[in-house]
């Protein structure tokens, strides 16, 4: 693919963007001194900006989305064909790609049964919360309305999902929040608190959830929402023993398990879904980003048949069903893209590639850790990896945010886009994060790791 910027005047586009587009998660003051980046083309893992600069994108569209890579004409063709035939009808009726994708998805999710379509990760999580709340009213006399979430986890940008989020950067200045969302501690072994049982940390961390359930009253707690591997909160995989214990606790107190697979879903960690590494059976699973790799907006709230059944059993039929709609959940472009996206993951054996290249990526980051004292901890699973940067390995004091930004900026200047995670309320958790497309090659990993190596050398020598 060539970088064809001839169809428009790139200076005009950059100026229009600077003058009229409000970028996400962006302090626009920066554009008083430098131009905003406008992305023009993409192919594989590479993107080109309006000025013709080429980048290797190691975070799949900045936010871990483009799982099958850029420039997939087969997805674009399927979406075009579908749109010409039938673009939209509300999900009060079915449509062909929605039915076909639901069938294909459920085949990969033993124990799960029903797919509810909407447009974004936040929306999928809102649907899950509404399902939990309605079950509380239908089955438990309006009592089991509380939803637990973990410190450091992120579940979305709406006020409801932010209420279920444990990240300072996301929540600060947006309160007050929705009642009955209750925070529980996280399970980051590297940052285990002094009072923690370090020998059995996984079980100890899960037991902290039980303490909160007991303090709140088990009769008030309807569900817990968890990322299988915490993404924006610092790329955190729970230690051994954690998940079976969480499942046991939830069973004991009749608490539904809602797994947020918005980042980990569709192959990112080497299984179709992150939770499938840990042998847990969720009641609700939400997913978005990788479902159609950003070729169309689509998200899914997937439930067990038991959860679905609760909406059929009601004496008053008008109260019984799930009284929710998402207008654009009826867009056919989403499931049409998702079907081909999933087929690509299968046909190209991308789960195998994630496992092979993911192991290589983590080994290379560990190699960097041996070389650079600033790396305190390397974490990750599959093609989802991160490393935490510290001033001192013994005290684990995190580096200043400016250091993290400098490392990311250095990589960007050298044509490699990497990501960073967010600060939680309790800890200044600054982790560089990598989540490249699932098609990445060993050679491309080497380019990314070399760029990080050089950035760390440059940044640490200037400290
Ligand atoms: N859950 C998780 C784990 C996420 O990382 C995100 C987005 N980063 C969301 C939910 C929200 O998704 P969206 O931005 O599509 O609303």
Automatic annotation (TrEMBL):
Against Gene3D superfamilies, the record matches this protein to: Aspartate Aminotransferase, domain 1 (3.90.1150.10), Type I PLP-dependent aspartate aminotransferase-like (Major domain) (3.40.640.10)
Q: Matching InterPro entries, A to Z?
A: Aminotrans_3, Aminotrans_3_PPA_site, PyrdxlP-dep_Trfase, PyrdxlP-dep_Trfase_major, PyrdxlP-dep_Trfase_small
List, separated by semicolons, the cofactors it needs: pyridoxal 5'-phosphate
Give a GO molecular function annotation for the protein. pyridoxal phosphate binding
| CDD domains, A to Z | OAT_like
* Organism name: Amphritea opalescens
Q: Which SUPFAM superfamilies is this protein grouped with?
A: PLP-dependent transferases (SSF53383)
Q: What is this protein called?
A: Aminotransferase class III-fold pyridoxal phosphate-dependent enzyme
């Amino acid at each position: 693919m060539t970088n064809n910027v001839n169809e428009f005047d790139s200076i005009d586009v950059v100026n229009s963007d600077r003058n009229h587009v409000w970028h996400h998660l962006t302090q626009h003051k920066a554009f008083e001194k430098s131009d905003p980046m406008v992305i023009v083309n993409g192919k594989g893992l590479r993107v080109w900006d309006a000025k013709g600069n080429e980048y290797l994108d190691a975070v799949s569209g900045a936010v871990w989305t483009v799982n099958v890579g850029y420039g997939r004409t087969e997805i674009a063709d399927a979406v075009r064909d579908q749109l010409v035939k039938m673009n939209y009808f509300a999900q009060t009726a079915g449509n062909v790609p929605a039915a076909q994708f639901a069938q294909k998805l459920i085949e990969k999710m033993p124990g799960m049964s029903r797919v509810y379509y909407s447009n974004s990760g936040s929306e999928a999580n809102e649907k899950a919360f509404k399902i939990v709340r309605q079950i509380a009213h239908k089955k438990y006399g309006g009592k089991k309305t509380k939803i637990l979430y973990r410190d450091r986890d992120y579940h979305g940008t709406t006020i409801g999902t932010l209420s279920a989020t444990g990240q300072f950067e996301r929540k600060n200045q947006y309160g007050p929040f929705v009642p009955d969302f209750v925070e529980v501690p996280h399970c980051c072994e590297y940052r285990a608190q002094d009072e923690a049982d370090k020998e059995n940390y996984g079980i100890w961390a899960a037991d902290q959830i039980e303490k909160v359930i007991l303090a709140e009253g088990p009769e008030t707690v309807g569900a817990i929402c968890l990322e299988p591997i915490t993404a924006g909160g610092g790329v955190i995989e729970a230690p051994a023993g954690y998940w079976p214990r969480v499942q046991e606790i939830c069973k004991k107190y009749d608490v539904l398990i809602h797994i947020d697979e918005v980042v980990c879903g569709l192959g990112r960690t080497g299984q179709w879904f992150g939770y499938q590494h840990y042998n847990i059976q969720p009641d609700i699973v939400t997913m978005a980003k990788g479902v159609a790799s950003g070729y169309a907006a689509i998200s899914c709230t997937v439930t067990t048949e038991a959860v679905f059944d609760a909406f059929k059993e009601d004496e008053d039929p008008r109260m019984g069903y799930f009284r929710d709609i998402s207008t654009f959940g009826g867009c056919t472009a989403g499931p049409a893209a998702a079907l081909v996206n999933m087929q690509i993951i299968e046909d190209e054996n991308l789960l195998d590639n994630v496992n092979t290249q993911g192991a290589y990526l983590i080994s290379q980051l560990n190699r960097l850790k041996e070389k650079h004292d600033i790396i305190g901890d390397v974490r990750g699973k599959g093609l989802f990896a991160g490393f935490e940067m510290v001033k001192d390995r013994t005290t684990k004091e995190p580096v200043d945010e400016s250091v993290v930004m400098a490392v990311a900026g250095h990589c960007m200047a050298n044509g490699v886009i990497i990501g960073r995670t967010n600060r939680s309320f309790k800890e200044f958790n600054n982790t560089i994060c990598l989540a490249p497309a699932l098609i990445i090659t060993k050679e491309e990993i080497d380019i990314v790791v070399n760029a990080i190596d050089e950035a760390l050398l440059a940044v640490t020598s200037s400290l």
